[in-house]
Amino acid sequence: MKRLVLLYIIISAAWLSHAQKTATTTDGSTVILYNNGTWKYADTAINKPIEKGGEHFKPFGTNCIIKGQEVKYVVVYDSSLWTLHDTPINKQSDFSMSLKNSETSLALLIPEKSTTTLASLREVAILNARKSSKNVSILKQEYRKVNKKDILYLEFTTEVQGFTFLFMAYYYAGPTSCIQFVTYTEINQAEKDRPKMMDLLNGLILP
Predict the structure, then answer these.
(1) Whole-angstrom distance, CA of residue 70 vs CA of residue 72
(2) Element of type H or E holding 14
(3) Helix, strand, or coil here: 170?
(4) How far is the C-alpha of 168 from the C-alpha of 125, rounded, in Å?
(5) DSSP label at 50?
(6) How far from the centroid of its chain's Cα atoms is residue 117's Cα?
(7) Are strands 136-146 and 149-160 parallel, antiparallel or unpaired?
(8) Which of 119, 108, 128, 124 is closest to 182 using CA atoms?
(9) How far is it between the farthest Cα atoms of the chain?
(10) In contact, 199 and 59? CB cutoff 8 Å
(11) Where are the domains of the chain?
(12) Is it true that domain 51-205 has CATH number 3.40.1000.10?
């Protein structure tokens, strides 16, 4: 899957029948191994139950629309606030945009023809963040109804080369496709740009 980490577990061949063991995945995450053959992530964010959020709807004042081609979706947004890039900043994304009057606030959407679950998307998103930075803090994770569709919302901070960034993202897993809609900004812009980033995310409309 695009931009998602394909995980496989490196485990010891020697099992102790009376105790748990731990192992480390290829990306450095720790898992707990049980003697019945099952395992779980030692990452408390992944193991923590996901909260149930409320309903969210597209904001008023949107005047532009983006339509997905291979994967069907619609994003409505306010062009007085967001600038659509001529070329996406990520070659795997359908589009990217930047928030006007902000040096660091960006957004991109990555669709894919793939079958998965929201739970799997959550695990891979968190592990992918931890792969790029050891200093990742999960601030919120919840299931939401966004324009009548089930969406996973993740909010986390990550430190990259001494800079801290806030990520706010929606994840969707449908019968034949999945979508990652991600916004992010440098932490010192977060307080000011958060409402606009959230409005943009809530402009995601799925069939």
Answers:
(1) 6
(2) none
(3) strand
(4) 12
(5) P
(6) 13
(7) antiparallel
(8) 108
(9) 63
(10) yes
(11) 51-205
(12) yes
Cα-to-chain-centroid distance, residue 169: 5
User: Residue for token digits 């793939």?
Assistant: 114
Find, among 119, 127, 134, 128, the residue nearest to 171 by Cα.
119
Q: Is residue 24 within a helix (H) or strand (E), and if so which, with residue range?
A: strand 21-24
Q: What tokens does 151 get?
A: 């969406």
Neighbouring CB atoms inside 10 A of 85's CB total: 14
Helical spans, DSSP H, in 48-186: 118-132
Q: Encoding tokens for residue 132? A: 């790029």
Please count the residues of the chain: 207
Residue 168 bridge partners (DSSP): 155, 183
One digit per residue, pLDDT tens: the chain, 207 residues?
232 222 122 222 222 223 345 566 665 555 656 666 666 555 566 667 888 999 999 999 999 999 999 999 999 999 999 999 999 988 889 999 999 988 789 999 999 998 888 888 888 787 777 777 778 888 999 999 999 999 999 999 988 778 888 999 999 999 999 999 999 999 999 999 999 999 999 999 999
Q: Which amino acid is at 132?
A: S
Are residues 112 and 150 in contact, defined by beta-carbon separation less than 8 angstroms?
no
Instruction: Write down the pTM of the prediction.
Output: 0.79
Q: In angstroms, how far is the first alpha carbon of the chain from the final one?
A: 22
Tokens of 195: 């409402």
Q: What angle do CA 182, 185, 188 make, to 5 degrees?
A: 155
Pairing of strands 178-186, 106-112: antiparallel
